[in-house]
Each structure stands twice: as structure tokens, then as C-alpha cells.
Amino acid sequence: MNNDRLSVLENFVKTDPDDPFNWYALGMEYKPENMAKSMEYFNHLLTRFPEYLPTYYQAAELMLDLNERDKAENILKKGILLAQKQANLNTLRELQNMLNNLYFEED
Questions:
Q1: Class at the top of the CATH hierarchy for domain 3-106
Q2: Which residue pairs from 75-84 have beta carbons closer than 8 angstroms and sit at least 24 positions apart in sequence?
């Protein structure tokens, strides 16, 4: 985690809090070393910017890393519906694959 980059990203959020990418970038920056902090940013995105599709894959992946399988499944299902609504076939495929893998691991 690069503190200089964090400082820049936090400044972006202060300057333009209505841009979901700024929040997403912060969540991604924290993800490798501070999963709880990262999830705070992803939860903020899911609540305040529910149409921001990139959040769903990363948030679900993080929930799986935190052993929160049911939450990951719920996030994936919502993301799949949104990807269908937005006709974003690449993201739809990625979310469906993650969900299928989740079900496959159950067996």
C-alpha cells in the first residue's frame, strides 16, 4: 500500500465525492493489505453508487477472501442483474463465472 498514492486518492474523494471511481480506487488500494477498510469503501459504493458495476466483482471477491460466502453470493447476484440491465456482456460473464465457481466449490 503506497501512502503517497493513498493521499492522492483521498484528495480526489474530497475534491469530487460524486465520482464513484475515486471511491473504487481507494477500495482497490486498500484491498491487498487492509481488507476491512477496503470493504468499507466497497460497501459505500454498493450503497451510494449501486449502478457502478465494477464494484460487484471486487466486493464479491473480497467477501470470499473474508469467508463471507453468502454475502459474496448476494453481491454476485445483484451484479449479474445490473450487468444484464447495462448489457455489459464481459462483466456479466465474469460475475457468472465467479458465481458458478462458488457453486462448484460447494459440491
A1: mainly alpha
A2: 75/46, 76/102, 78/50, 79/53, 79/55, 82/50, 82/51, 82/53, 82/56, 83/53, 83/56
- d(CA 11, CA 27) in angstroms, rounded, equals 14
Orientation angle between helical segments 20-30 and 35-48, nearest 10 degrees: 160
The confidence score (pLDDT) of residue 2 equals: 79
19 burial (CB, 10 Å; 0-12 / 13-18 / 19+) is middle
29 closest CA partner among 16, 42, 19: 42
Instruction: Tell me the average confidence (pLDDT) per consecutive run of 10 residues in the chain, 107 residues long.
Output: 88 97 97 95 98 98 96 99 98 98 83
What confidence score (pLDDT) does residue 103 get? 92
Please state the φ and ψ torsions of residue 29, each to the nearest 5 degrees: -65, -40
Q: What is the CA radius of gyration of the chain?
A: 14
Which residue in this structure is represented by grid cell 467477501?
Answer: 63
